């Protein structure tokens, strides 16, 4: 596993700050030890430094992965978060969207969230802000990007898309062959 290049580290931290803001520091300096991000075959892994030291005895070709896969870099150097990062990012999320119980299944099938499916939304969220999508019972369901700001949502038509779908916990089943 290798360190992220400066360019890729910048892309990763910009994307993280889009979802969790200044809480990135809490993600790295945790009470149970220091964690870091490493790259292996264009995938970004979140791993404890203690586990990372233990994995150094394996060669590049022998190592499948170490830690939790946070995302993958595309050929155009864009980072797409995998759903495995959800449980690490959800507690630190600045902006959240809750979907109605009648729309949870639609979101888990990969559909965008219209205003009619919106249960609640955090205040002062801007347009194109990264959000974590929750069920009304506070279960994290996935990631999204707001299509409209919080103030625009109040006056929007019920069929207007409020949040664009990025990934969800239903991806494990839908993309089982290609995700990992």
TrEMBL record:
One GO MF term attached to the UniProt entry: RNA binding
All copies of domain PUA, residue ranges: 95-174
Record's subcellular location: Nucleus, Nucleolus
Organism, as annotated: Drosophila willistoni
PROSITE patterns reported for this sequence: PUA
Gene Ontology cellular component list: nucleolus
Family affiliation: Belongs to the NIP7 family.
Record note on quaternary structure: Interacts with pre-ribosome complex.
Alphabetized SMART domains for the sequence: PUA
Protein name: 60S ribosome subunit biogenesis protein NIP7 homolog
GO BP term (any one): ribosome assembly
Secretion signal, residue range per the UniProt entry: none
UniProt xrefs under InterPro entries: NIP7_N, Nip7_N_euk, PUA, PUA-like_sf, PUA_sf, Ribosomal_synth_fac_NIP7, UPF0113_PUA
SUPFAM superfamilies for the chain: Pre-PUA domain (SSF88802), PUA domain-like (SSF88697)
Gene coding for it: Dwil\GK22489
Gene3D superfamilies documented for this protein: 3.10.450.220, PUA domain
A Pfam family that the UniProt record links to this protein: UPF0113
Primary residence: nucleus
Keywords from the named record: Nucleus, Ribosome biogenesis, RNA-binding
Record's function text: Required for proper 34S pre-rRNA processing and 60S ribosome subunit assembly.
């Amino acid at each position: 596993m290798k360190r992220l290049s400066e360019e890729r580290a910048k892309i990763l931290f910009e994307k993280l700050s889009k979802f969790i803001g200044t809480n990135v520091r809490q993600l790295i300096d945790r009470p149970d030890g220091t964690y870091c991000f490493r790259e292996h075959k264009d995938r970004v892994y979140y791993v404890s430094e203690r586990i990372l030291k233990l994995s150094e005895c394996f060669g590049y070709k022998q190592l499948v992965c170490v830690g939790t896969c946070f995302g993958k870099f595309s050929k155009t150097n864009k980072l797409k978060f995998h759903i495995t990062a959800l449980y690490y990012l959800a507690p630190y999320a600045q902006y959240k969207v809750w979907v109605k119980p009648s729309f949870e299944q639609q979101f888990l099938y990969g559909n965008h969230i219209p205003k009619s499916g919106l249960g609640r939304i955090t205040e002062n969220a801007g347009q194109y802000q990264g959000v974590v999508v929750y069920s009304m019972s506070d279960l994290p369901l996935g990631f999204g990007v707001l299509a409209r700001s919080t103030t625009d949502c109040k006056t929007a038509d019920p069929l207007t898309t409020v949040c664009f779908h990025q990934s969800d916990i239903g991806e494990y089943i839908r993309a089982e062959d290609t995700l990992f």
